[in-house]
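PT: before anyone asks, these are the final sequences, not the draft ones from last week. 353 residues across everything. Please model them as a single complex and drop the result in this thread when it's through.
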Amino acid sequence: MVRTIISAFITLALLLGVSFYEASYVQNKFDEFYVSLHALKRKTELGTVSYTDGLSLREFWDDHKVTMHIWIPHTVLYEIDYQLDEAIGLIYVKDLEGALPKIEVLLGLSENVPKGYTLTLGNIF
Amino acid sequence: MGLIIIRTTFIFITLFIVMRLMGKRQIGEMQPYELVITLIIADLACIPMGDTSIPLLYGVVAILTVYLLHQIVCIIDLGVRGAKTVLSGVPSIVLNRDGVDDTQLKKNNLDVTDLIESLRVEGYFALDAVEYALYEAEGTFSALPKKNYQALQKSLPVVLVDEGKFDEKNISLCKRDKGYFLDVIKQLGGKNEKDTLVMTVDGAGKVYWQERNKKYKVINLDWEDPLW
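LR: through. Structure below.
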């Protein structure tokens, strides 16, 4: 009985710890990504963006992505990869008007993906 | 391919540890909630093993959550008086000194044929050879035979009436017609086969008859030669 109670408490603590860490980790990583994306968007709007800016953002994202595979379904990360590659490609061919909607999609994803990890009624059901 | 091997190994180790922590009952005779947990766990383990787009952690966390729920149910089961009845159920005495308890059978979604089959598995072929028979909460069957039970089951009984209906095949096996057995029912104090819960006859002509909610009766028919 004592062993059962102890193991239940340990498991509960472990699960709660992992849950809170996951929510905060995912939120922090996407917040940082959002800030970098926003800077890229500003530069694109002003027409000062360069292909190197795009590559730097991809490098930044790749670093974040490694550990995010533990927490997020890989298909979500592939979607971000796809949109990011398209945006960088359009920047490379100087199609800044075409790149802006892609960056906007990425901003939307950065805002909405972490929301999927919060304890809300909608997410539970 | 290598990914699936690693993921499967990881899930296997997690499941193995969790099953060991859950105790011996989980791999032997299971309570209803334990069966539910085992079924869920098997499914939870399969999804992240096969689908590499799902983080492995999702499977591990789900298994640990099921383990936590199992431990909580165990604590309630062992620590709260009366909880065992709700969580695991109680044994059902389906056959007693008055005969077959139809109410208990129905409560467990069983019928007389299931009871006879369980008795046969235990080595008792005649309903009157057993003093008590019960289904445990986890579904196993136990029977307490009468002292002279071997003398009471010299020949294999067959079911003639099962919950108000004649079994045509077994009647023809006895080389008699329905009318003959209706007379036997009337001789025993019944009206017809519809009120009969169970009626069996063995090869020597020993009849076990029980009306619904009444004590059983046994008579020996004067058959000249044993039929089987």
